[in-house]
Design a protein that fits this description.
By secondary structure, this protein is mainly beta. The chain has a domain of 166 residues. Strand 8 and strand 9 form a beta hairpin. It is globular and about 70 Å long.
């Protein structure tokens, strides 16, 4: 059995001292299997804009960091001399003091950001991979359920947190697959495809912000690398090619903002230093 534990203390001139911790354990059993479990806490500090914005939006220098607590249990299993791998993780998270934006503060001159909301997230991640010589293929799936527990002071239709509803922009399901191949020359070819499910959002171009559904989308990416100059087993100069969103899918990760279309990058990688 392997055990680990850690703690961290941060001191900030705005919100004072905060502490976080994490513990974990894993234990293996015969035939390439392993169970693991972990628990811990974390924080997310306010952004500079949330603290100090001026003008139409007023920041709040008294914001506390968002806090989270989580636990997870997982399993890994290798078969056929580790050429086949399976894995699964169940996770559970709680978030407190989430920073909420309000278009109409309680009083004139008050900030637009407050620590008020609380939410939870839980889900399952599963994956598998197969390796056979130069070829590696795999797939993964994530199921996620989120819920707002405390909506804070703004619970209208245009609110960013509505009690009993899901957190914005979190897909309930994501499924993906990947394939890679490596030649004896050191050249590599990689490709991946990912399907992201529908997500709830708000159209902040209207007031009050109207609820909208962001449609699901599929992304196909690929990359390749070809060594041009090698010393021993070390590549000194390689040509690289990377393409994202090969299908030129039209989608939005945030309502009203289109994500990039097809992109292709050609480059070179230079290896410096000693070694063979």
């Amino acid at each position: 059995m392997d055990l680990n534990a850690g703690a961290r203390i941060e001191d900030n001139e705005l919100f004072g001292s905060t502490s976080t911790w994490q513990v974990g354990a894993s234990w293996g059993y015969a035939e390439g299997g392993r169970f693991r479990a972990s628990a811990g806490t974390g924080i997310k500090e306010p952004t500079f804009f949330e603290n100090y914005a001026t003008g139409f939006t007023i920041g709040n220098p008294d914001l506390a960091p968002e806090r989270s607590s989580s636990w997870e249990v997982g399993w890994e299993q290798g078969l056929l001399n580790e050429t086949v791998q399976f894995s699964g993780v169940w996770f559970d998270q709680d978030f407190q003091d989430l920073i909420q934006y309000t278009f109409s503060p309680p009083n004139a001159g008050d900030p637009n950001y407050f620590n008020v909301a609380e939410a939870s997230a839980r889900g399952l991640e599963a994956g598998m991979s197969i390796s056979s010589g130069a070829l590696t293929a795999g797939g993964d799936f994530t199921w996620l359920a989120t819920e707002v527990i405390d909506s804070g002071f703004d619970s209208g239709e245009g609110a960013t947190f509505v009690e009993g509803e899901a957190l914005l922009r979190r897909p309930k399901s994501v499924v993906g697959a990947s394939v890679s191949y490596r030649w004896n020359t050191g050249a590599t070819l990689n490709s991946s495809i990912r399907r992201v499910g529908e997500r709830e959002d708000r159209d902040f171009g209207s007031y009050p912000a109207a609820p909208v559904i962001l449609e699901s989308y599929t992304l196909l990416d690929a990359s390749a690398e070809m060594p041009l100059l090698t010393t021993g087993n070390r590549s000194r100069l390689s040509l690289t090619l990377r393409a994202s969103n090969l299908l030129d899918a039209e989608y939005e990760q945030v309502s009203g903002f289109s994500a990039p279309g097809r992109q292709v990058y050609l480059g070179a990688k230079v290896g410096l230093g000693g070694g063979s």
